[in-house]
Amino acid sequence: MIGAPSRLVTIGGTVIGDGHPVFVIAEVGYNFNTLDEALASVDAAAACGVDAVKFQTFRAETLTSRFTDFPAEAGATNQFDEFKRYELSEEWHYALFARARERGILAFSTPGHRDDVDLLERLGVPAYKIGSDDLTNLPFLAYVASTGKPIIFSTGMGTLAEVEEAVAAIRGAGNDDIVILQCTSNYPIRDPRVVNLRAIQTFQQAFGVPVGFSDHTTSFAASLGAVALGASVIERHFTIDKQLDVPDAFFSSDPPEMTALTAAIRELEASLSDGVKRPTPTELAMRRETRKSLVALADIARGQPLTAAHVIVKRPGYGIAPKLQHLAIGRRTRVDIRADEVITWEMLE
User: Fold this and answer.
1) In CATH, which of 3.30.300.30, 3.90.1210.10, 3.40.50.12160, 3.40.50.2300 is domain 281-347?
2) DSSP label at residue 48
3) β-sheet bridge partners, residue 295
4) 286-312: b or e for each residue (b if 16 or more CB lie within 10 Å)?
5) How far separated are the first and last CA of the chain, in Å rounded?
6) What is the tens place of the pLDDT at every residue in 169-196?
7) Element at 233 (helix H, strand E)
8) What is the pLDDT of residue 5?
9) CB proximity list for 133: less than 8 A, separation 6 or greater
10) Closest CA relative to residue 166, chosen from 198, 197, 130
11) Strand partners, 24
12) pLDDT band at 1 (very low <50, low <70, confident <90, very high)
């Protein structure tokens, strides 16, 4: 069961939370080799209908040891060498953020160090995304929170207790503009049993903040399931070309997939509606013509008492309701009623 309504978080004028459209993030990350490819990624993401693009802001020297490799599922390459290759200069940051503004979408990034936060502050980012690797880096979370900007953080590899500590660190720095993303840190996720979408409801009930889903799967099912469970944010890896020579492109969504996913999310959230069960305006004609009511089984003369033998229950539905038949039986008719005519209260005394 989805928990009580959470507080709302506003990012760049866009409200995130219950009752508002799902906030769709295209995680461009470093899915490009040149500035032209990066700018094209922003253009393509905007054309897909997303709300924001996200990058990664880091320097290899402040992100990882030179002597550690990725696990086998992520290529087993040296982490320092990979991150060094994909560092973004401050000039590229400015160019990418400017392009996003031109295209009418938001742009922000995931910093890996305090220096990266300072760079992003110079750019005037509207929010920060914190990766799962920093879920337990509480001093860093507090530093980011001290900017006063909304924080979206992923919870991959984490426990509920660690998420609670992260929330406390952010709130302890005076910042309650928090969005929590359920996340599983596999790239890609190959076994749907590890996705654990019900953690979305756990976070909603535990923390009272907007909750979303960072999707590392290769189908739409998990993202759509997350929205159905109340996710306010969907983050999805994005590339202009799955064949690009970059680490994450092969499992990222390309423009046709991202367009289809965004459209499916919009259709699903419209379908969820407000949860109040009532006839919709589109059903009123159908309700009138296909519900059932009392219909004359044979001709009934004016002035006769109505008996059970006089009536049958069948369509349409604008006569006396079957549940009120006991109140109609025994009343005299005001008019002649033809066989197969719908019986209404106006026909009875």
Assistant:
1) 3.90.1210.10
2) T
3) 312, 342
4) eeeeeeebbbbeeebeeeeebeeebbe
5) 49
6) 999 999 999 999 999 999 999 999 999 9
7) strand 233-237
8) 61
9) 112
10) 130
11) 234
12) very low
Token digits for 138?
Answer: 């509480």
What is the residue extent of each domain of the chain? 13-272, 281-347
Q: For residue range 293-329, what is the model confidence (pLDDT) as tens digits?
A: 999 999 999 999 999 999 999 999 999 999 999 999 9
Q: pLDDT tens for residues 200-259?
A: 999 999 999 999 999 999 999 999 999 999 999 999 999 999 999 999 999 999 999 999
What is 13-272's CATH number? Answer: 3.20.20.70
**How far is the C-alpha of 64 from the C-alpha of 84, rounded, in Å?**
10
Look at residue 3 and tell me whether its pLDDT is greater than 90: no
Q: Which one, of 179, 224, 172, lies nearest residue 14 by Cα?
A: 179
- So what's the pLDDT on residue 6? 74
User: Residue 320: what pLDDT?
Assistant: 98
Distance, in Å, from the CA atom of 247 to the CA atom of 31, rounded to the nearest integer, reads: 7
Instruction: List the structure tokens of 41.
Output: 């990624």
The C-alpha atoms of residue 225 and residue 264 are separated, in whole angstroms, by 11
Q: What are the backbone angles phi and psi of residue 33, rounded to the nearest 5°? A: -115, -20
Following DSSP, what letter does each residue of 244-305 receive, concatenated?
A: SSSTTGGGSB-HHHHHHHHHHHHHHHHHHTT------GGGHHHHHHHS-EEEESS-B-TTPB
Distance (Å, whole) CA 53 – CA 105: 7
Q: From CA 251, how far away is CA 237, in angstroms rounded?
A: 8
Q: Which residues contact 121 (CB under 8 A, 6 or more apart)?
A: 147
